[in-house]
Amino acid sequence: MHWRSGRAWIGLLAGWLVMAAATSALAQTAGRDPQPGSPLAGGVTYVDLDHPVTSSGELRVWRVVSSEGARVMLKVFRPEGERLLLVGSSALETVPAGGVANYPLLVPVARNDLIGCFCPDSSCADAFADGRVLSAAGDVGTSQSGAFATGTGSASIFAAGSYLVDVPSTASTDLVVPAVGRTPGIGGTVWRTRLELFNTATAETTVALFLNLSDRDNTAPAASAQVAVPARATLIVEDLIAETFGLDEAVGSVDIVASAPVIAHARIANVGSDVGTFGQAVPGLPASWAVGDDVVPGLNPNAARFYLFEARQDAGFRTNLGIASVVATPLTVEVRAMLGEQTVGAPLTLTLEPFSHTQVNRVLGEMGVPSGMSGVRLEAAAAAGSGGRFFAYISRVDNGSGDAVFLLGERESVMP
């Protein structure tokens, strides 16, 4: 179980500590423990105890870096009581000396599964005994990097970077609703946010909600609340900002941290029309789906950016761009408007405070894109070295009716 820094409260944190302690007790049951100075016949399995899988899905690609060359196999373990059950593995692959190798695979995983790597040759054990530590790259839907560890806490002799992609489920214990609001808007629009929370568990679930206001540091959230959702039930909050956070006006994003996986869905509606309401659906997204500046050599460099389509600015429509940060450090996002392979207008650089949200109204005009230009897409990526992660969206609003459509950024596959 993984919590983003600053987004767990003490009740859930205690539960996480119990899980961590239980996982550590399993270390001696997976594979053989290497003994410095002597190769181990039959090989050794190294298990990463620090980065359990954070969402159910499938592992589609893994990466190995080796300076000496090695035969390796990725393994997936599931904790069951005092043992680790092997639930899946890759083929045995041969990594060339000094090589960076990416391998496809298709292994179903569940939340809290552990990833290990098996090295069958004595040469691997020799490398460990000699103290060589090969570089780590990637993870399993948790942090951005980190060395795999053995049961004794020593660094492993190689690292496998496993990427959780194309995850079909939005149920998670750590969600982000990238846009919420209770505010007057352009053209007489009046915006309100309705939230639904579905508890997927068969027992009552405790859910913490954190409000991140736009354009400010939200390390300490602007407001927070805690609710209980009965087993397999849906909690509905008609006016999220006023009822849950006690504010008359606010714009930003909401972090949701739960004791069991939940599904969240928001609707931001314009209630200022005489003929009814017009709204846009905003999904709650697993925080692990956010994009960062983690471009990995050998994989698709365009996978670390959001593509935003259907942007329009003309007499009929306007387009607003939103960015929601999911990290506890400042973040810089670079935005370009593209027509085919040509940049149009001027690039836009946005700097966000920790856990912040920002929205640029009439963004195409702000970037100098000619009014009425058709087929323009926006591309948003974290600035190199920024270390942050974020979601991007556009809200396209009908100037006549005030009706809005929420369009989340799209992504390419990590595979080249």
Describe the structure.
The protein is mainly beta. The protein folds into three domains: 10-164, no CATH class; 172-287, TM1070-like (Hypothetical Protein Tm1070, Chain: A, Sandwich); 291-408, Hypothetical Protein Tm1070, Chain: A. Helices cover 8% and strands 46% of the residues. Strands 9, 10, 11, 12, 13, 14, 15 and 16 form an eight-stranded antiparallel β-sheet that branches. Strands 1, 3, 4, 5 and 7 form a five-stranded antiparallel β-sheet that branches. Strands 17, 19, 22, 24 and 25 form a five-stranded antiparallel β-sheet that branches.
List the helices and strands and how they pair.
Layout: H1 10-24, E1 44-48, E2 57-66, E3 70-80, E4 83-89, E5 93-95, E6 99-109, E7 114-119, H2 122-129, E8 159-164, E9 172-184, E10 190-199, E11 205-213, E12 223-229, E13 234-237, H3 240-245, E14 250-270, E15 278-283, E16 285-286, E17 291-292, E18 306-308, E19 317-325, E20 331-339, E21 342-352, E22 357-360, H4 363-366, E23 377-382, E24 389-398, E25 404-408
Antiparallel strand pairs: 1-7, 2-6, 2-8, 3-4, 3-5, 3-7, 9-10, 9-14, 9-16, 10-13, 10-14, 11-12, 11-14, 14-15, 17-24, 18-23, 19-22, 19-24, 20-21, 20-23, 24-25
